[in-house]
Amino acid sequence: MAASTNDEKDVKLTALIRTMFERVPKEKRLTVDVVMQLLKAKYMATFPAEYLADRTVFLTRLIDSLYSAKSAETKDFGENGNSNSNDEDAEEEEEDDDDDDDDDDDDDDDDDDDDESDDEEEEDEDVDDESHSEGTDGTGDNNDGAPAVKRQRLEEGASEEARRCHEMVDCLRHLSYRVRKQEDGESSEAYLQQYLVPLFQEKGLDPARYSKADVRRYRVKRELEQLQSDGADVNLDRAARAGRGLNGLLPAKDAIVNIKTSQFLDEE
């Protein structure tokens, strides 16, 4: 009975690892340590500790097989790519024409898919944030015109402080803040505690929150503050707007009621 239960868990675990593998960016690599951390953090109800204790070899072989299969597919595609390039170009041109016709319809469906994409992005972030592989990004211009700082490469097996520095710098960069690079000879701990944490506090940010989801929240908060500073009313309650909503109190009989209405009402 126990063997049958473990077999069922192996099937579920294999499906979960395949999903994680498909969502890991190309420049990063899924490792057993990262998988174990995610399983213990989020999936202990499905995969108990005693089950995971002897699954290290199983996970290692599974991950290696996934990368081997992916390498073989890439190699086969490279060998056959030149012979099929002309046909593929013609097909891509036809697909581009069809895509142009469907763009208007796709735009109408984008809002409905936002909630689902946010959930998938958060799971992707968990895999990205805990991966110990290298990640690089080109330099670019910030929204306010300030030059972006080139992202520092994370070496394999980098310390927790180094990874946190890397992610905090990315957070500040996406919020268009200028960030100095870590100097030669400066430890990650010193760079974190003496520069990044004070900089977060100076900008009104939480040093413990620097994920992609936090970046979106910071941007929304900043936009609301800018609107309020300009005197805008950001109250989204329609019942509180003049000329809208219903009063829960019934007027006395034959009483004269003065209702303040908006000068410009929607045509309904």
UniProtKB/TrEMBL annotation:
User: Biased composition, Basic and acidic residues: where in the chain?
Assistant: 152-163
Identify the stretch(es) annotated as Disordered. 74-163
The residue ranges flagged as biased composition, category Acidic residues, are 86-129
| Descriptive protein name | Uncharacterized protein
Q: Which organism is it from?
A: Trypanosoma rangeli SC58
